[in-house]
Amino acid sequence: MASKFRTKDGGEVRVGDKVWARVWQESDNNPWLITQHPLDKTHLLLKEIGGTEERVHHPDDLALYYYANRQVPSGG
Predict the structure, then answer these.
(1) For the chain, how far is it from start to end, CA to CA, in angstroms?
(2) CA-to-CA dists, residue 1 to 4, 14, 15, angstroms
């Protein structure tokens, strides 16, 4: 069974789910796919959907930065 992680809005996500991010820049308001890091099982890899960026995160970072929305956030 895949591990569960919580996001900033209190949502519950797992590897293979999509999360939305608004972190440091307005352009970061994009969906990200959660995947297991291939070399470091203690970290997750988030891949930007429709883009090329990847970010490595500790699972606790999801609770700090990412939202578990399934739609594009409207109006900010």
Answers:
(1) 34
(2) 9, 10, 10
- Residue that is written with structure tokens 């519950």 in the block: 12
Using one digit for the tens of pLDDT, what is the confidence trace for 33-55? 999 998 988 999 999 888 888 88
Phi, psi of 72 (to 5 degrees): -65, 125
Q: 23 CB contacts (<8 Å, ≥6 apart)?
A: 65
CA distance linking residue 54 with residue 10, whole number of Å: 23
Give the C-alpha separation, 59 to 73, whole Å: 22
- Coil, strand, or helix at residue 18? strand
Model's pTM, two decimal places? 0.74
Residue 21 one-letter amino acid: A
Amino acid at 52: T
